[in-house]
């Protein structure tokens, strides 16, 4: 083995201990010094290259391993929960006005006022009835056929009115304390119309004819003020 | 190989430190190294069924990490062959002397090594792999490994380039 072969072998692996290497190192002082220098360099490198990993790295990786499937499970649970909440919220939103409309409809069917028989006292009693429910009558809604203070089977107080409008009559039931969350259709016998929220109160407008509930809602706005609404 | 949480924890705790050191010297960035180690272990765990020899886990992880690094950060540089002139240089290489290379200076020089040389050096110094093992890991010939180690050690002990002196007017 000559010096070049020796040094090439040492550079490839200073820790190699084949007999020809050891023999050359014994015979060549320069190569022996070269070998010692490379061994020292190797020791220095071992020390220098032994960088310390962050102490929490293993824990973070294990957590990531656990969290990945958990994330997908959590996502599924979150979606299910969101769906359930939306269904529940929608249920609440829809259920409340439908339930209220049914309650008003039952009352209107059970206590249907005489549609065609004008009550001469209706206009005179109107302000008092309104006041009884906490409102202020600005004027009697002309022409008022019937007016009564009523209570539904759910113990909700209301103002039951029947108006004449040309060839047909319109039944209005005002719920001063119970506004529906959304507008819903309402049917009571031959009457049909809408239960709608109006300035914090519930307003059912029905007729045997097809009518525009907005027109009567505006009429009621002009006729009654509900300070608590 | 049975895959459960305890096995994964054992794998992570047994290999994270070595993998991190390899990744650090490969990427020269601790944050990148951490990401590489995590991604390597998670990816390797999903493919653990492909490993039939448990004794080769570490080498397999190193290979996975190298591929992950190449995929994310760079292409593997082609290996270079040692020229005859460079072989002759071994006779004129300066000998490192204790205290000549400070710890920080040595670190700087290792970081300045080309990636292929640094990689071979880390596998030899930190992992204690033989030339043949390094060759198998890097998918190159043993002579190419020798070439890289020779170049690396030569650069580590070569004198620093002289700082140009400013002439006073």
Q: Could you describe the 3D structure shown?
A:
The complex is a heterodimer of chains A (229) and B (169). With 229 residues, chain A is of the alpha+beta class. In chain A, 51% of the residues lie in helices and 21% in strands. Chain A is rod-shaped. Chain B is built from 8 helices and no strands. Chain B is globular, with a radius of gyration of 19 Å. The model of chain B is unreliable at 76-88 and 162-169 (pLDDT under 50). The chains are: A alpha+beta (229), B mainly alpha (169).
Protein chain pair with the most extensive contact, residues per chain: A-B, 34 and 47 residues
| Shape designation of chain B | globular
Helix content of chain A: 40-55%
Q: SSE string of chain A, helix = H, strand = E?
A: HHHHHEEEEEEEHE
Give the distance, in angstroms, between the N- and C-terminal Cα atoms of chain A: 107 Å
How would you write the strand order of the largest sheet of chain A? 2-3-4-7-6-5
Mean pLDDT of chain B: 77
Number-wise, the strands of chain B total 0
Residue-averaged pLDDT of chain A: 84
Q: Which consecutive residue ranges of chain B, at least 5 long each, have pLDDT under 50?
A: 76-88, 162-169
Structure annotation, total helices of chain B: 8
Helix share of residues of chain B? 55-70%
DSSP summary, beta strand count of chain A: 8
